[in-house]
């Protein structure tokens, strides 16, 4: 498909999505609600990497295929909620001033179906543009696009490709999308941004919490790949405030695996205690530990941590009294050619059960595991 | 000296310098002029690295010491012109929105003496801020300074440390300083910026060129460390236009050594054909060659190329019919603790002679060499 048609098609998806969002307008209050008599089902979209090589035909074609993966999974699973697990875009490949354009495209399949979602940041979401070496040969620099109203032309012909910051991306999403449950987090945690909690309540009583979902920014891009000491303190204070007696099960989402993932990682094959289907690379962990895992390990209420980042891993392994899980590479952007899919997480209230499996682009499922036992 | 006093002192230097520049106002026209009966003397300030670790006491103290080096050299040599040979600032260490503040400090010893100058960019001049890992521990993030009028507080408390672009730095310098002979270069060479030519004319006749000085941006920071094919074409067209018969001697300045420097580099000691005093590291060359050296090698009018970048090298070595020279590390910022100094370049008109030596902070000189033979 010619590049301009791909772009037009992606723009159409956004437009239809925006219209659908208007039609299905809800008023999110930071809390989610079970549906009567049904489990609460979430789909995790990991490492979509929209906007990659946007000046080629290949790049926009990958994004179109990623829209296809998300659409297939959403139609098969009909989830109540979607989590965008970071690396939504490949900012270091985006040569426009405002990367929110690509962020929007990645959200569109969820938006168009009226499904609420939340997002966290990965290491590729706010990186500055990396100039390809080839552009300094006879090939030359392609004519840049600076389509946003805020495009900075310094004096006329030069865009400033300094990347769109986490805050700009998040605020653009929140302002635009009524279905977004994302939050830009407490200011004192900056430069880390996507730190917030969502409470899932029972269908019968909004005051009756079924599970707590913590979203944490694991850094990368414009700053180190790390969960800071300040974030650890925030988690401790927040969890003490909303779950002082550890009665409510807790689920954690961030993008880059912590070093504990390296410890539990199966070496040559998925062993008996782990569940998963691919084991193609080593765990690429955060740069340092500032205490987050120690805090989580001491809370029996914490059932599982979900991360993306490693496209060639999709396992869940037990660690202390919780599970450490990878999602499944969803996007056609990013490295690796393993078949695309998405991890599904299902919460049942009575009796409480946290179940997960992987739904592939081709409709098949595998790697079902109970994470609450 | 306490940090606030260092900062106040540096600010005072800038203020006095601005006043002096007003007093000695000239009208630069892109051309330089010999003084009657005198050689034309230039001093090269390389790798000053202002703004390093600006949140500590150590950082501003280094800048103050660099002001001391420049002042000593300028007072000893009394040059007609100064070339700032890149890495004027360490932008990846600067946590303010507008790095021009530090750029200004680096120019101040020259400005305060009423000496004209020009600048080129190094790989550290427009890099985005690199967050120290330690700030994510219990130490925390220091209260950031966003002192410029353009400081971007995204919503209140967060500065955006995306670096000040080459264009912003250069335009700020040119607008502010009447003694600046810098130019932001032809637009079609962007993202490379500091590409321009200065003509040195004889004292008796402004139409009589004595030497041509080409300033070239060798990249790095926000884009690869490279001289592009587009810059090579620009050099070819420009030199053909202003020096078609190769009659005027040509001198070239850029920041990062080209790969040819690796070929001629003395291995274990400064050998007979080279002249210099330190040989403490390997040549850190540009990432790729797009043809610049081949073009220069074919022009007998090209006498010498001057670069910085390697703080532990200060030699000149012959290459084909020209000389390849390192400057001398001038700044207390940047790696290495070799004694600081500056390369001096002197041009005599009749007979034409290009001579160079190194002037140290302590007043001594060494490594004199004739580059026009």
TrEMBL record, chains A, B:
Where is the Calcineurin-like phosphoesterase domain positioned along the sequence? 41-311
Q: What range does the record give for the signal peptide?
A: 1-21
Alphabetically ordered keywords of this record: Signal
A Pfam family recorded for this sequence: Metallophos
Q: Which CDD domains match?
A: MPP_Dcr2 (cd07383)
Q: What protein am I looking at?
A: Inactive purple acid phosphatase 16
Classification lineage: Eukaryota, Viridiplantae, Streptophyta, Embryophyta, Tracheophyta
């Amino acid at each position: 498909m010619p590049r301009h048609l791909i772009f037009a098609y992606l723009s159409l998806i956004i437009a239809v999505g925006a219209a659908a969002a208007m039609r299905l307008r809800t008023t999110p209050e930071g809390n989610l609600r079970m549906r009567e008599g049904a489990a609460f089902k979430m789909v995790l979209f990991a490492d979509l990497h929209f906007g990659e090589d946007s000046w080629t035909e290949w790049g926009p074609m990958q994004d179109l295929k990623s829209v296809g993966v998300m659409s297939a999974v959403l139609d098969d699973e009909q989830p109540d909620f979607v989590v965008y697990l970071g690396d939504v875009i490949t900012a270091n490949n985006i040569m426009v001033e405002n990367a929110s354009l690509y962020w929007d495209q990645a959200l569109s399949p969820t938006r168009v179906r009226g499904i609420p979602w939340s997002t966290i940041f990965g290491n590729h979401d706010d990186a500055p543009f990396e100039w390809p070496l080839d552009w300094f040969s006879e090939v030359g620099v392609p004519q840049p696009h600076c389509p946003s109203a805020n495009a900075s032309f310094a004096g006329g012909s030069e865009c400033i490709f300094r990347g769109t910051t986490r805050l700009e991306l998040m605020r653009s999403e929140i302002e635009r999308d009524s279905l977004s449950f994302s939050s830009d987090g407490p200011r004192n945690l900056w430069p880390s941004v996507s730190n917030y909690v969502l409470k899932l309540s029972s269908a019968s009583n909004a005051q009756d919490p079924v599970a707590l979902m913590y979203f944490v920014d694991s850094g990368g891009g414009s700053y180190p790949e790390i969960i800071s000491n300040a974030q650890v303190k925030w988690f401790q204070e927040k969890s003490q405030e909303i779950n002082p007696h550890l009665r409510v099960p807790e689920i954690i989402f961030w993008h880059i695996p912590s070093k504990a993932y390296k410890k539990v990682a199966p070496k040559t094959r998925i062993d008996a205690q782990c569940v998963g289907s691919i084991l193609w690379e080593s765990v690429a962990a955060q740069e340092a530990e500032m205490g987050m895992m120690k805090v989580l390990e001491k809370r029996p209420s914490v059932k599982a941590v979900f991360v993306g980042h490693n496209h060639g891993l999709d396992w869940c392994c037990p660690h202390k009294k919780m599970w450490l899980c990878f999602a499944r590479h969803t996007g056609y952007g990013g490295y690796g050619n393993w078949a695309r899919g998405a991890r599904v997480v299902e919460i049942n209230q009575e009796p409480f059960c946290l179940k997960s499996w992987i739904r592939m682009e081709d409709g098949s499922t595998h790697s079902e595991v109970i994470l609450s036992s």
